[in-house]
Amino acid sequence: MRAMRLHRCGERLSADTINLGAPGPGQVRIAIDACGVCRTDLHVVDGDLPSPRLPLVPGHEVVGRVAELGPGVTTLAPGDRVGVPWLGWTCGACDYCRGGRENLCRAARFTGYTIDGGYAEEMLADARYCFPLDPSLDAAHAAPLLCAGLIGYRALRLAGPGHRVGLYGFGAAAHILAQVLRWQGREVFAFTRPEDQAARDLARRLGAVWTGAAIESPPVALDCAILFAPVGDHVPLALAATRPGGMVVCAGIHMSDIPQFPYRLLWEERQIRSVANLTRQDALEFLALVPQAGIETSIERHPLGDAGLALDRLRSGAVTGAAVLLP
């Protein structure tokens, strides 16, 4: 089968033909219909994240159909439409797994990072981490839900029930989460790069009550803020924009260093916390919410062989919404 593989961090992906093999115990073989291009893929390809398994097929926003069952799989059937996210395997036995915090499992494996992902025609996946999807969903539009949507949803859960929510970085995750927030009746404040008029226009179309640059102050204090942009300098800016008792959530897997800032920005019981991965419960809740909230994704489509181009466009900030690869 065809796959786009990373052989060395910092280099271009290569188009390879590889033998996938049969699914092992607990696995399924998936015929891939679409795979989203996530900023985490950039962090893997560019070497920001340590020790990826090389050579590697990136990609962890996968939508496809079950083609073959491995031994012991009873929860899925051939032909089922499924989605595969970033968290691809956990031990199931540690304190974190048994306590409902499998996202923190120390032995976890990650799709498109430590196990091969979805920049390919087919993949193998742990059946426990394949989530049933409505077969009527357009695969390309559904793909960003598997990470941008899931991580945004988990970040919102950790941010709390605040009414005025700031979203720093208005890309794939924020444009999905903005729709959830508006459906819930909350107010969205969108922070973008100063020159990114397309992102501001998208935010307004999705109901944002205010848009501006990260260095700007919103007209009212935020109840909470979620940072999708991997820019540590934004943390003190978000704290300054957040009311006493508010929460600032760092939603990325990688971020530049947070600069020193005065204690007064954290004082009055403001909080900073991070998001790590997701749980299966997050996925079940969010995917059930998608049709209720009428979430639609804004995407640009690329053939599988143009994975490098899609990554370049994401790196340069040229993608509005999400990029998706189609085998």
Automatic annotation (TrEMBL):
Residues 10-325 form the Enoyl reductase (ER) domain. GO terms for molecular function: alcohol dehydrogenase (NAD+) activity; zinc ion binding. InterPro entries: ADH-like_N (IPR013154), ADH_Zn_CS (IPR002328), ADH_Zn_typ-2 (IPR014187), ER (IPR020843), GroES-like_sf (IPR011032), NAD(P)-bd_dom_sf (IPR036291). The keyword Transmembrane does not apply. It is an enzyme of class 1 (oxidoreductase). Gene3D superfamilies: Medium-chain alcohol dehydrogenases, catalytic domain, NAD(P)-binding Rossmann-like Domain. Pfam families: ADH_N (PF08240). SUPFAM superfamilies: GroES-like (SSF50129), NAD(P)-binding Rossmann-fold domains (SSF51735). Keywords: Metal-binding, Oxidoreductase, Zinc. GO terms for cellular component: cytoplasm. CDD domains: CAD2. PROSITE patterns: ADH_ZINC. Its EC number is 1.1.1.1. It comes from the Bacteria. Belongs to the zinc-containing alcohol dehydrogenase family. This is alcohol dehydrogenase. It comes from Dongia mobilis.
